[in-house]
Amino acid sequence: MHPEIPYMREAIIFLVAAGLVVPLVRKFGISPVLGFLFVGLIIGPFGAGRFVDDSPLLDYIVFSDLDGVRRFAELGVIFLLFTIGLELSVAQLWSMRRLVFGLGAAQVIITAVVIGFIAFWFGNPVVAAAIFGLSLALSSTALVMQLLTESRRLSAPAGRSSFGILLFQDLAVVPILFFVGFVGASVEGSLAAAALLAILEAILVIVVIFFIGRIIIKPLLRFAGGTGSREVFMAAVILLVLVTAAITAQAGLSMALGAFLAGLLFAGTEYRHQIASDIEPFKGLLLGLFFISVGMSLDLLAVWEVAGWIALSVVGLLCIKALIIFTLARAFKLPTPVSAETSILMSQGGEFAFVIIAAALSFSLLDMEAAQFMLLVVIVTMFLTPLLAIVARRIGQRLQSNDLENQALIEADSTERPVIIGGYGRVGKMLAKLLDEQRVSYVAVDSDAELVAKERARGTPIFFGDASKADILEHLGIDRATAFATTMDAPEIAEHVIKTIHSSWPEVPIIARARDVDHALVLRNSGAQSAIPETMEASLELCEQLLTGIGFPDDVARTIVDDQRTWQLETIADQSKN
């Protein structure tokens, strides 16, 4: 293409794939991830690239610079992790510590030991076997998270458990690469002391990022947003993301982890929804390029030459990782359907295997032939991941439908920490719809038997019972609930429910619907963390519509109303303390 514009031909090929191929595969109900993988397989150097000498015209549709594409495609993984962090918060992440540092750590260690032992049994040296075990213990963050996002299951129990494991795996890349560098360079000194120093440095970098980020992010975004230019605002966001990713990379951490930390910082600002909307197209296109690069890496001819061993190794890796993850998930008391879905979804190899094995090859720690074989196995398992996700979901659904005795436990899983909705009238249904759209687990309880039966038939996770009874609340899992929301009409019943929960489970946040300001004060004094008067919200909505109607910009009117809402809620909170 044009000699002064690098990668112009590759960009046009990619946009054709994104604009034509992906809509076509969506029409047939196929995952876009699988579509990009197949596109990469066709237009890569091991696909149509093999026939360029015979048909020169094919050179116009073939990606020739595979390494360059891979480096550029890494931005897709960076923005994926950023958007994931943007949808979380530090508090939510801390609530997942059992999954991340418990289940995730156990999975990496045990899987690495088992696979490393098998590699050693097949004749590999101890160091090579250890590197293979550590590499294959990791799964594909990009593939799994994108598939979960597409299916809107990131907040589902299996999505949260998968994310917890993946997050620890990303953290584990640091000591793994340190191990490879230490062994390859034959550095003198204590390996344990050096590893501890590297971990402490990583923790220090993360703390510094959070400390400085909390100070500068809001003022910088406010300044960029105050220019009135959407382009300037997005430039500031992308700058902050890439700078954070670069800082973590310089510290020996992955760039993806830095982007995730940046997302967590942005999640605490009032700009998170605007940022998520603006960044989505960039993330989607760059991730598509990443999946194409994975497809381009698959050499079908090389696979065919050792098809038998590749097939055995792929099946072996999938089965070993699935069995280990399933066993550990059950040991961590995850329900059987969740454990099964997570184990199958996470059984593939991951993109960090390329990084680790490449580093080991640079130090001559691995035999080239063995390393290439392992990379082929990883690529094939990654190629199979969209199909594994379908199988995992179906098996999880089948096990869940068969496990009627533990249905309540599955619906209010201890890992998921559901929201409990007390009362399923007009407001309760609205809350449930909102939570369902955001894939947040919830359980509702209502004393209207006819209503409960009707909603259960529709698949709503609702149970019959009196929410003011402590034993009913215990069965619903109030001790592990994220929050309790009471939406009841009767003021006396709502007050009684709040007092019951606050006295027995004071750590559970209670969000209450109130009729007016006076009722809100009563509920706050009874133990509700927040009590929202309906009359106040109606008035504020009217004010916002009035302001926009007389010419105020939408965002300005919304800010004014939000400030007024905050002031009124703070006034209610102050009055409840007096």
List the helices and strands and how they pair.
Blueprint: H1 8-27, H2 32-43, H3 66-87, H4 90-95, H5 97-121, H6 126-136, H7 141-150, H8 157-185, H9 191-226, H10 230-250, H11 255-267, H12 272-296, H13 300-305, H14 307-331, H15 336-345, H16 352-362, H17 368-402, H18 407-411, E1 419-422, H19 426-437, E2 442-446, H20 449-457, E3 462-464, H21 470-476, E4 483-486, H22 491-504, E5 510-514, H23 517-526, E6 530-533, H24 534-549, H25 554-577
Parallel strand pairs: 1-2, 1-4, 2-3, 4-5, 5-6
Helix pairs in contact: 1-2, 2-12, 3-7, 3-11, 3-12, 5-6, 5-8, 5-14, 6-16, 7-8, 8-9, 8-15, 8-16, 9-10, 9-11, 10-11, 14-15, 14-17, 15-17, 16-17, 22-23, 23-25, 24-25
Radius of gyration: 26 Å
> Major sheet: order of its strands?
3-2-1-4-5-6
Query: Count of DSSP E strands?
Result: 6
Uncertain stretches: 404-415
Structure write-up:
This protein has a six-stranded parallel β-sheet, sandwiched between helices. The protein has 578 residues and is mostly helical. The protein contains 25 helices and six strands. The chain is globular, with a radius of gyration of 26 Å.
Question: What characteristics describe this protein?
Answer:
mainly alpha; 72% helix; 6 strands; 25 helices; 578 residues
Would you summarize the structure shown here?
The chain has helices at 8-27, 32-43, 66-87, 90-95, 97-121, 126-136, 141-150, 157-185, 191-226, 230-250, 255-267, 272-296, 300-305, 307-331, 336-345, 352-362, 368-402, 407-411, 426-437, 449-457, 470-476, 491-504, 517-526, 534-549, 554-577; strands at residues 419-422, 442-446, 462-464, 483-486, 510-514, 530-533. The chain contains 25 helices and 6 strands. Helix 7 runs antiparallel to helix 8 (157-185).
